[in-house]
Design goal:
By secondary structure, the chain is of the alpha+beta class. It is about 35% helix and about 20% strand. It has one domain (about 5-265): Lambda Exonuclease, Chain A (Alpha-Beta Complex), CATH 3.90.320. The chain binds iron/sulfur cluster (SF4).
Length: about 270
C-alpha cells in the first residue's frame, strides 16, 4: 500500500523556493486571489501560446489575432483576481500585455523552430521510500521545445517586473524548473535534450521589454550522485518525513504571494 501525491509539473519547482508555502497551497489546499500582475502573466502566456500553437499547426497568424485571448484572460479570468492588490489597473494590464505579446510574436518567436508548445507529459512516478510516491504530471506550462537541426532544447517564458535586466532575461533561480522540464520532456518523447535552455523574459514594468537568457546544465541540480544529493533527493526526504521547511528569505514571502502568510510563524514581517 502506498500514498501517492499528484503534483502538477508547473508547480514542482516552487517546492524548492519555500517548501512550506508549497505544502500550504498544493497539499493543504490554501488559496488566495490572483494578483493583477500574476493575472497579466497568465494572459500574456495564454496569448503567446495561442500564437505559437497556430504557427506549429502551419496556420497563418498575426499578433492581432491572439489579442482577444489576452483580453479575455484579463476580463473573464478562471480564478478570482484582487484588482486592488497593487497599482496595476486592468486597462494598464491590457496595454502592457498587448505590447509584450506583439513584441514576442514579431521579435522572439521567429527566431525559433518550435516542435512542442506546453507539452502534456507522461506522468513521472518517484518512489520516496516508506510507501510514499510522488506523481508529477500535467503540462510544461509556459514552455516550448525548440529544435535547431543539431538538437532539442527548452524555451521557458517568464513574465514579471524583473524578468529582464540590462537587456538580458533573468535566469537566476529558474534552474530547478528548467531541469524538471528537461527531464519530463525526455521521459515523454524519448528524445534527449541537448541544447541549453533559453529563458524568454517579458518585463511588465516600466517600458515593456523582451529579451533572452540561457541556462546550461539545469538537470545537474535535480539529479544527485552517491556523494552529492540532488534536489530530487531533498524532495523525496520532504515527502517521506512530511516536513516542508519554510524559507522566509524567499522573494515571494509576502501577503501578496503566499497563501500561508497569515498563519505562518516563520514569516519575516519586520519593517
Ligand atoms: S510566509 Fe514566508 S516562510 Fe511562511 S510559508 Fe509563506 S513564503 Fe514560506
Amino acid at each position: 500500500m502506498s500514498d501517492t501525491y499528484r503534483v502538477r509539473a508547473s508547480s514542482w519547482a516552487s517546492l524548492f523556493d519555500c517548501a512550506h508555502r508549497w505544502e500550504g497551497t498544493h497539499i493543504l489546499g490554501m488559496r488566495m486571489p490572483s494578483s493583477p500582475r500574476a493575472q497579466l502573466g497568465t494572459a500574456i502566456h495564454a496569448a503567446t501560446a495561442a500564437f505559437d500553437e497556430a504557427v506549429l499547426a502551419g496556420q497563418a497568424i498575426r499578433p492581432v489575432d491572439v489579442a482577444p485571448v489576452l483580453v479575455d484572460e484579463l476580463t473573464s479570468p478562471d480564478r478570482e483576481v484582487d484588482w486592488s492588490a497593487d497599482e496595476l489597473t486592468r486597462r494598464d494590464a491590457e496595454r502592457i500585455g498587448l505590447q509584450l505579446v506583439t513584441r514576442y510574436c514579431l521579435e522572439i518567436a521567429p527566431r525559433y523552430h518550435y516542435v512542442a508548445v506546453e507539452l502534456e507529459v507522461v506522468p513521472w512516478l518517484i518512489d520516496c521510500g516508506g510507501g510514499i510516491v510522488i506523481e508529477i504530471r500535467g503540462t510544461l506550462d509556459r514552455s516550448r521545445a525548440r529544435a535547431d537541426g543539431t538538437g532539442v532544447g527548452i524555451c521557458d517564458l517568464k513574465s514579471g517586473v524583473n524578468a529582464v535586466s540590462q537587456g538580458r532575461a533573468k535566469t537566476k533561480g529558474h534552474a530547478p524548473q528548467i531541469g524538471t522540464y528537461e527531464l519530463l520532456y525526455e521521459r515523454t518523447t524519448g528524445q534527449a535534450v541537448t541544447l541549453p535552455a533559453d529563458i524568454i523574459g517579458l518585463k511588465t514594468s516600466g517600458a515593456p521589454e523582451v529579451a533572452v537568457g540561457q541556462i546550461h546544465n539545469a538537470r545537474e541540480q535535480l539529479i544527485g550522485s552517491d556523494d552529492s544529493p540532488g534536489l530530487m533527493d531533498y524532495a523525496a526526504d520532504m515527502f517521506r518525513s512530511g516536513l516542508f521547511p519554510p524559507n522566509p528569505t524567499s522573494h515571494l514571502c509576502s501577503a501578496k504571494y503566499c497563501a500561508r502568510w497569515r498563519v505562518c510563524k516563520f514569516k519575516d514581517d519586520q519593517p
